[in-house]
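## Example pair
The file below holds two records. Each record gives the amino-acid sequence first, followed by its structure token line.
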Amino acid sequence: MKKILSISFLLCLSVLTATAQSIYDYTVKDDAGKDVSLSTYKGKVLLIVNTATKCGFTPQYKDLQALYEKYRTQGLEILDFPCNQFGSQAPGTIQEIHQFCTANFAIQFPQFDKIDVNGPNESPLYTYLKSQKGFGGFDLNDQTGSKLDKMFSKNDPDYAKNSNIKWNFTKFLVSRDGKVLKRYEPSDKMTNVEADVCMELNSNAVINAIMERRSIRKYLDKPVEHEKLEIVVRCGINAPSGMNRQPWIVRVVENQQLINDVTEVYKKENAEQVKRDPTFKNMFRNAPNLICVCTPKNGGDLDAGLLGENMMLAAQSLGLGTCCLGGPVRFLNSNPNAKFFLDKLDIPEGYQLNYILSIGYPDESPAAKPRDASKVKYVK
């Protein structure tokens, strides 16, 4: 009889998972045992994570809280589901777990009742999450990821073939419309998680970004956060490329001293021009950061152009300004005294600096220049 009931339960679970269209079809219990429909979070970007309080990854609570504080007002919610299935590292009641997390990490994001994420009693939510994003492997270039791979491979050489949650602090990123976008294993870097969260929070305004983008030639004296530069470049390298050759290389300059040093060379050679500009700070329109794009000397310009447009639009969506610079490129490529700058970029043999994008927080709001719509004809 018990076996029949167990089979019936699993069949019901399978049917529910098969018919579900998004996470909004699921109901979970909060830390007080009350039912909560996940449709409550429609329109939010979600990071769903199974946690434990006695795990080597438990300090990630601090990173999660920092992420929550940074992006909550932009629409991020973190949903915490404690789970005791991995080494019994989430002991105690949900109330005891909550008390531990608030006392040690001051968490503010919602915690839900303890659940199973694998096996016959697993939460239907997690059945669905796993069906949408299976296990993609640990990062073997990461020391912790490599250790986890060896540990699991020792017990089961085929462990990577199933979609089961492997350990505490596995994370799922869910879009504003309830689609499961990505799965992160516990050893994945939180900086990568943040970059994806930030990208998703700003991914719903593509047309606005295109129409509102302007070339910015005045910037605030404020460096761009590294995670935002990462997002911009990741958008760039996902641009179309003929035969997927990806012929370009990209160098992102965050070294303020390097910018200042090469500017000193520029000032000596262009003293009169610099003197005429009372706002002059550096030779890159005073931008705090640069994105340098290099291409093979025998081609690659078209692909590089597509790359650059993607980066400029991504920057616009993040509240950043850009300008494609040609003058500084000609100076750097032709002046021997500026060679140290190019050397620092570590440009491979056979490549040359093609263009530079200045990037930073805008200190101006230029009006749009007119576009000639008469140049467009529709052939029907």
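Second record, same layout:
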Amino acid sequence: MLFSTQYRADIGVFGGSGFYALGEGLESVVIETPYGPTSDKISLVDIGGRKVAFLPRHGADHRLAPAQIPYRANIWAMKQLGVKKIIGPCAAGSLQADIKPGHFVICDQFVDRTWGRSDTFFEGPIVTHLPGAEPYCPSLRKVATECAQELGITVHPKGTMVVIQGPRFSTKAESEWFRNMGWSVVNMTGYPECYLAREMGICYVNISLITDYDAGLEGIAEAVTGAEVIKVFKENNERLKELVYKMTERIDLDGDCSCMHALDGSRM
């Protein structure tokens, strides 16, 4: 295990529930951050000649609940490694009948329903107002959608994720509210991870792997359980890894992107 920041990576990948390893790690790296330790050690993996930094956001033994994940430390460490692009897959519940378990959703919007999470690197004395209209990288979303389609994965190219605090799942009333608002998926870790990446000028894409129908859909499915989430995620883990591999080889590391300039004009 290495305790150094001399190691570099091009692309970062966060593993969600049931996704705790990516290929054969070349090295394991521990990065010290001003925000404490990361969720776990970071594995450096070679995919198609590109160095990928993989970090299971819940820890390799899934010891961290959604609100306990050190999001700032994780993103800071990725930045220290030189990561320019982050792929952030996660398990998510569907809020709409046409988005079925086993489908993938490439979210383009989120609604934050969390509380108490440290969600910015800019705590003063300079006030920073980052634009949030397009929270996910449009270029990476396009790559994710195209690669998923080529692999024969049923993918929805856009959707709104509502991020709840957890660790409990939604009540039926909450789930009905989210569904009636037209939102697509529900998850517990989607915020502030993507926003913190934006503050660091890192392109970020979410891939929601649908495991359930949240609190249930009358006549279609019962309410979700933790065991069901893990079961469906494991069943689809290899497809998700194939998508990550394919994206890694196709992502343009040199092209300019609006995500890299999110801070321009944002500091007061």
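Notes on the second record: The mean pLDDT is 91. Residues 226-250 form the longest helix (25 residues).
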